[in-house]
What we know:
Elements: E1 3-5, E2 12-14, E3 18-19, H1 33-45, E4 50-52, H2 61-73, E5 78-83, H3 98-101, H4 104-117, E6 123-128, H5 141-153, E7 157-163, H6 173-177, E8 183-187, H7 199-206, E9 209-213, H8 237-240, H9 245-260, H10 268-277, E10 282-286, H11 292-299, H12 309-316
Parallel strand pairs: 3-4, 4-5, 5-6, 6-7, 7-8, 8-9, 9-10
Antiparallel strand pairs: 1-2
The protein binds NADP nicotinamide-adenine-dinucleotide phosphate (NAP).
Residues 19-22, 28, 52, 129, 163, 185, 213-219, 222, 224, 269, 286-291, 294, 297-298 line the site of NADP nicotinamide-adenine-dinucleotide phosphate.
Amino acid sequence: MKHRTLGRTGIPVSEIGFGGWGIGKSMWGKTDDAESMRALHAALDAGIDYFDTAYAYGHGHSEKLIARLFKETGKKGTVSTKIPPKNMEWPAHSRTALEVAFPPDWITLCVERSLRNLSTDCLTLEQFHVWTDTWIKDPLWPEVAETFARLKKEGKIRFVGASINSDDPDTALELVRGGFVDQVQVLFNLFDQRAAERLFPLCREKNVAVVVRCPFDEGGLTGELTPTTKFEPEDFRSHYFGADRLAETCRHVAALEKAVLGPKAGKLAVAALKYCLSFEAVSTVIPGMRKSSHVAQNALASDDNYYSAKELKAIAEHRWVRHFSL
Ligand SMILES: NC(=O)c1ccc[n+]([C@@H]2O[C@H](COP(=O)([O-])OP(=O)(O)OC[C@H]3O[C@@H](n4cnc5c(N)ncnc54)[C@H](OP(=O)(O)O)[C@@H]3O)[C@@H](O)[C@H]2O)c1
């Protein structure tokens, strides 16, 4: 497993990180804790040391499983967690007042709760689970910024980040420019390549870490979905890939495979991870994983043999910005 630096935090992190949404048992259909724990153990064994979670992933369930992993192994990793918006609205809307989404007392409450769930005294990286740049001009912003400063002073958090709205990677550019965050997490994959246009160069300039999420487009880029794949009703993908969306995704995949499969990647899932790691701005990519077999396969994608500028240009022909999102 290769490592990169998590921007200006200076923390070395594995190029492949662990996406902890699925193990939270909230929206991914049947999920077995024993299998999730095996996946987490496999991650440590494969050299994965960056774990992304959130309170919203099963009301702290994902956070608690990660704490259990560290307790069982006596090992540690870098964990990023997230404060849900108090109004529970994803994505963040530019018309929503900061008071409604992230009032200071809510921020403090959520930090304390994640500290308990993760069985730790200090959160290495606490993220806003949604963000819109209009909040920087909100009258409450100075108080929110002061709350984070206090929590840092008290030793309860070390670094602050923001998880950017899935439908627009440019909604946190002002936040990055202003120097408040050390990290951003953004949706980026072989289909949705927009974050590379403005966000990545800005983050490089400011030395703000980029954590890439949804490298598999929720499964669309694993190469395992077919037009007849069925999801359980309680799996959000029964809607995400509903109507003709699955067939449309499969059509795009068929064209894309011609551009990405070859000596560097024999399988689409490997290509999907290597694509993300082809950008220097990216510190780590966090596929969602619930199975140890997936962990083992994904970890192998970190081999320093990524796509060249010429190959990336050919891949850019296959950009597909979805008209549907989470
Ligand atoms: N707003 C936010 O802040 C936000 C939103 C979304 C995601 N995230 C974070 O980003 C992480 C990744 O995103 P995601 O989990 O939504 O989507 P993703 O990584 O694009 O896709 C996850 C899917 O890929 C499958 N998979 C993983 N490795 C595979 C392999 N080697 N072969 C075949 N299939 C494989 C998983 O299978 P199984 O179904 O079998 O597990 C799961 O269905 C999340 O876990 C979470 O930490 C944050």
